[in-house]
Structure formats: structure tokens, C-alpha cells
Amino acid sequence: MKNFFAFLLAASITAVSLSGCGGSAAQSSGSKSGDAADQGSAASAGSEQASESKAGGEFKVAMLLPGTINDQGWNAEAYKALQAIESGLGAEAAYSESVPQSDYEQVMRGYASQGFNFIVGHGYQFSDAAKIVAKEFPDVDFCITNGTETQEPNLATTSVDSYEFGFLSGTVAGVLTKSKKVGIVVGESSPVMNAFSDSYLFGASYHDSSITGKSITAGTLEDASKCKENALNLIDDGADVLTQMANQAGLGVINACEERGIMNLGSNGDQAPVAPDTVVTSVVQDMSKAIYAAAEKSKNGELEAKSYNFGIKDGALYLTPFGNFEDKLTQEQKDAISGYLEKLKSGEIDVHALMGK
């Protein structure tokens, strides 16, 4: 793709260039253009730079992350995708961790002005910034994960089905609960997290209509202690199976379950390594498949300004092994869980139809 050089950075951004499974930090800094004339001149210069880059066959991919790559979940999955893109598509790859909302536009502009062809904002919260910056760099492909808004000609979204994600997790919780009370802690209110929460509670009651559930919105994606406090409240209310969707902060929910000796269901990535005697299984939202697919389309000049959605049948959602719980679960429980998974794969269970979504 061609790239337009528009704005230089007002402050340093960290762009870590990947090499295999490792990375080395590289600083990129500059001053932001302050008026329309400067911006237009920069864009013209960037157009020439982009043409040279395309002619040379370079494919450069950058990713903005709301958290850290070691969260064993949402951000870790994105980092895995970036590594796969580097090795599988021969791309030059870079990323910025824990990008504050105030810097979204600035960091995106920085990558675009450095000649990156495909820029990913990992999470719906990057949508507004992407819509603004994408207009300034019409020949750069932008993509938001789990976003809901697209914009011609160059802003797409790629996601994993949040309703299938939550429903599968909810049915597992329904199979496991003894108290017939389940709970969930989400980081904040958003279309994606709300869909996950609603379908989780729906899935649990689908398995057994006598099961009740409660969802708490923590209001944070970083504060693990806040999520832990919310989880303890759910446990005190009788919930004996919890799950979470709160990025790094969600680790606090696992910690609460570990302390109280109740079961937890990991989400996004395989979270069993965090607490192997607490996390029964994880429902992996394999965003790496969704991100890789979008990157491949971008490299081939085929990425459209639309929403791409992947689910269980695409292999973008799956359950991890039961690990330390393999001998603790009954065969009846295992069969019930695998039964739901197979019915979702085959389409026998259509979550969207059941929930009217």
C-alpha cells in the first residue's frame, strides 16, 4: 500500500521491531506539524515515500496495544499475531505497549509517517482515533480489532464473535457450577464486553434454567486489585465459577478465585499458567487468526473497509485442555462441554438466533 507522510510525532513513541520471538526497542521522535500548510506539504512528501516503499515490495505492520504483551490474554494474543505476520508474511513488524488514550492519534500518525502499510489498533477504543488518522493517510490500511465502525476507503475491523465466545464460556460455567450461581467481571462497558457478558449469563442459564448469574463492570482494564475486589463480592454472593474480560486487570479475578478456592474460566488466551489449580480451562479468543487474515488481505491489496468476523467454525474460538482438572471433572461434565462445542461448530446451536442478536 502507499503511505502518506503527514505528521511527525510530538513526543517519543516506543516501536519495538520484532525479530523471531524477540524484539529490540527503537525510539522514534519528532515534532508535530502545527498548521494545515505544513500538513499538506508533509503529505505530499509522504506520497513519494510510499510509492518507493510499494515499488520495493516492503510490507510494514504496526500495532498499538492498550496493555502489555505479558498479560496472558488479550494483548498477548495480539503479540502472537504480530510474530506470525512477521514470519508468515515476511513483514517488518513493530508495536507500542500500554498506549494511553491521549496518545492514540499521535502514535498512529507516527507509524503512518514512518511508512508502515498496515496499522492495527488492538481494541474498539482505538476506533475514533483511527477514523481521524485514516483520513489523513488514505493509502495506509488501518484495522481495529473488535471494532464496530468502518470507514471508506481504508478502515476495516476484524473480530472474533463475542456472542459465541461468551456463550461457550457460559455453558462451561453452567456445567461446572454446584451453587447454581456464576459470575463475570468485565473491565468496562463496551459493545464487545457487553456482548460477552450477556451471552455468558445466557449460556449458563441455557444449560440449566435454574442457574443465575451476575456481571460486574469494574471500570478499569489496568487495576487488578479493583477486579479482585469485584470478584470477591461475587464469590461472597454465592458464585462458585467466575470468568473475566478485563485485559491485565482480569488477573485480579483469577487471584480472587485462587484465594477462595473456587473455579475460574480463563478468557482470550490460555490463562491456566497463571493459576493451574484454579483455571479449569480457557476459552481462547484467537485474535491472531483474525489479525493475520486482515494483514494478509492488506499485503495483497484486498483489504476492504468492512467488518470481518470469525467464530468457532473458523478455529478462532476454542477450549484449552483441562490440565490439572482433567481428573477432577466427571466424564459427564466433559461430555456436556464437548457437546456444546460441537453443536456450536456444526451450527446446531446458533447463538445469534437464540439471543436475537
Q: What do these coordinates show?
A:
There is one protein chain. The chain is α/β, with parallel strands linked by helices and 357 residues long. It is 41% helix and 21% strand. It is built from eleven helices and 14 strands. The strands form three sheets. Strands 4-3-5-6-7-13 form a six-stranded parallel β-sheet, sandwiched between helices. Helix 3 (104-113) packs parallel to helix 4. The longest helix has 20 residues, at 36-55. It is globular. Residues 1-56 have low confidence and may be disordered.
Core attributes:
6-stranded mixed sheet, 6-stranded parallel sheet, alpha/beta
The overall pLDDT average reads 86
User: Strand pairing plus helix content: what structural class?
Assistant: alpha/beta
Walk across the major sheet and give the strand order.
4-3-5-6-7-13
Fraction of residues in β-strands: 15-25%
Q: Helical segment tally?
A: 11
- SSE series: EEHEHEHEHEEHEHEHEHEEHEEHH
CA-CA gap between termini: 36 Å
> How many β strands by DSSP?
14
Q: State the helical fraction.
A: 40-55%
Main sheet attributes: strand count, strand direction, barrel closure: 6 strands, parallel
Quaternary form: single chain
What characteristic shape results from the CA principal axes?
globular
Q: What is the alpha-carbon Rg in Å?
A: 21 Å
- Unreliable spans are 1-56
